[in-house]
What we know:
Chain A is an alpha/beta fold. The first copy, chain A, has helices at about 70-80, 85-100, 115-125, 145-160, 180-195, 205-215, 220-225, 245-250, 260-265, 275-280, 300-315, 320-330, 330-335, 370-375, 405-420, and strands spanning about 10-15, 20-25, 40-45, 50-55, 105-110, 130-135, 165-170, 170, 195-200, 235, 255-260, 285, 355, 380-385, 390-395, 395-400. The first copy, chain A, folds into two domains: about 10-45 and about 345-395, Urease, subunit C, domain 1 (Roll); about 45-335, Metal-dependent hydrolases (TIM Barrel, Alpha-Beta Barrel), CATH 3.20.20.140. In chain A, helix 2 (about 85-100) packs parallel to helix 3, helix 11 crosses helix 12 (about 320-330) and helix 12 crosses helix 14 (about 370-375). The model of chain A has no long low-confidence stretch (mean pLDDT about 95).
Amino acid sequence: MDPHLTVIENGSIAIKGDTIAYIGSDMNPSLSASKIIDANGSIILPGLVNGHTHAAMTLFRGLADDIPLMEWLSGYIFPAESHIDADFVHTGSLLACAEMILSGTTTFCDMYMFADEVAKAAKQSSMRSLVGEGLYDFPSPNYGSIEKGFEYTERLIQKWKNDPLISIAVEAHSPYTCSPYLLKTGHAIAQKHGVPLVIHVAETLTELAEIQAKYGKKPFEFMEFLGILGPHIIADHCVHLDDSEIERMIRHRVNVITNPASNMKLASGIAPVTRLIADGLTVGLGTDGCASNNNLDMLLEMDTVAKLQKIALMDPTALDAVTVLKMATCEGAKACALGDLTGSLELGKKADIIIVDTRKPHLTPMYNPYSHLVYSAGGADVSHSIINGRLVMEYRRLLTLDLEDILFRAKEKAVLVKQWLSRI
Amino acid sequence: MDPHLTVIENGSIAIKGDTIAYIGSDMNPSLSASKIIDANGSIILPGLVNGHTHAAMTLFRGLADDIPLMEWLSGYIFPAESHIDADFVHTGSLLACAEMILSGTTTFCDMYMFADEVAKAAKQSSMRSLVGEGLYDFPSPNYGSIEKGFEYTERLIQKWKNDPLISIAVEAHSPYTCSPYLLKTGHAIAQKHGVPLVIHVAETLTELAEIQAKYGKKPFEFMEFLGILGPHIIADHCVHLDDSEIERMIRHRVNVITNPASNMKLASGIAPVTRLIADGLTVGLGTDGCASNNNLDMLLEMDTVAKLQKIALMDPTALDAVTVLKMATCEGAKACALGDLTGSLELGKKADIIIVDTRKPHLTPMYNPYSHLVYSAGGADVSHSIINGRLVMEYRRLLTLDLEDILFRAKEKAVLVKQWLSRI
Lengths: 424, 424
């Protein structure tokens, strides 16, 4: 995966510090290494970029499925979330990092409360991430009222600004949960610090109706009216769009993250991904949170996005495997403003690399590596992961995290969740 | 999984010979065992039933994706299939059995050429299966003309009739590739021996148009006209149905196998699964062949069928996890006329049992085992498999198959496939 989609058979990659120092079809004789990984029979790829998730929601995985969206939100997710604290978010984020590393993700973009805990968990895991505090009009269990939310965000930006792994974004939840004041202030903070503004847009028809009723506008139209659209926007979902909305997205070079599994499971709708890519927009791929997916497996998400576009357009050629793999790597990185660092295997880029072991029945024989990665492989086929030059998983053993401890702590938090909900 | 959906926590199951001899919430003190498997932290389930596949097509996995259906068939699949022989089918079927056991399938229903080789591979793997020779009007590389195809099918029925694992069906490819004579004769053979008649029905709109043009009828209408509908029919796909067709399926108690991943990938359409189940039809789940999926992972297929129904109906409550797990176990077994033997954990049933290890980040915490199995788990989470009382996989190691040898032989066959196609 480089800009020319070069496929090297029997090649090698060398890493120096945090950086890719050599890629070629043979071992460079002038290089020596303190550690050599034999990837015979495997595919070496840039680490996958999960463009949109709510990591700590791993702790709500499977809590309430197969129920109407509003009942899911108001009967389970919102009541549970009203109780969460820093430690809850830290534990859930560590659980997510463990799952993501084990399934080939090396970079993720997160939106949640107590975002500093998400950043700390990512740092502890040695994962690359774009993190931000979810901002909205109702009181937050973290920051309380919105002015404190802005302050919290500014502190996050200051705290992590020189970190090699963690980047901070301003994250306004959505045009229907954020006032014009919140959206404009969030935008101003993002512009001031030169960071992205992450926002859910046009996920459900209910949302469209709400914004229409409130402002007489469509979501992107409303955001354009507020003057907050631009190439710093990372718009999650983007399911319900008409020609005029897509025109606006193109005009302002908005970045898109699509979340097909979540959109299917919550019956939100089908994003016009094929068209958005044809129109030249940068479209990455995300799992969304575990409560609506219910996993963080980007290899499965690739399969889902390809198949969903094919069936939606009744066209088996829609969204081919190469395009999908780009969404999960270089395009996703670009969408998250991390394209200079990660998302491809190129000299000088940060060494974010995964190894997919293909010596398995479901990956045999091998006619086309793209097909196998998108349509046949799953997260469990990833054997090694390197992030920023550091080996974080070796033969599926996590090297930066204590898995037993994380699983134990996650189960303790689940007991709390059940207590919270039993009191309703 | 029993008819009452009993969930036993901290229980045990005992097997005597090929049969389930005890199920309960504690170890029965009157039982002793020569082998004990500790399934602590795991879910014990009936083995999954893959209701429709073409096992040997594992050897075409990833050969040609993202291209129009007719180009896929006439440019790749049909030319390659014109060269295949018994050894090719045997190798591909062994590869499929390895993949299926590794992903939790214990029973499969197959349709392919050289079906005796499929049966032999299943027997060698110690898998339960319903196997039949694909019958159609054009010459077959196995049997040549159709009269020989009928003879071959009769010989298969005789050969395997007392086998504890292998059952034989008559398998007429579809109403658009089989003449009325073939369909009626196939039906007569099935009736004579009391075996199922497996057939692809209403998979694509092209097929509907063809049957309409030829016979002025819809697919099930045509089959009803021929007098071949009945509860012995296992109808694969059933995507394009109107009220009158569904009425016919109900009247004749037709069994259905849905194949959502294949239907999405080939852009065939979306089967009205939720409605068929509400109408009381028996609906199982299948992966279809690997050339159109591209794997045989029934745990992933469960996720796909649930999400596809939700998005198709724009209803997050459609096809809940419990219903889906039944499709992949008891309902699938029933659809394949194997419901008396397998598909549930009940005293006296054959011991077809899998163990799903949940001590993993993506299966933690655990609020609802059904949700985890359908929405979070994948084939790689299955640690053990027992078929007909025999342990065939232990801690993911295959006990009945030589995996290295199968992978080696599969790669050799792929070299042949590339040679065949390069000559076109």
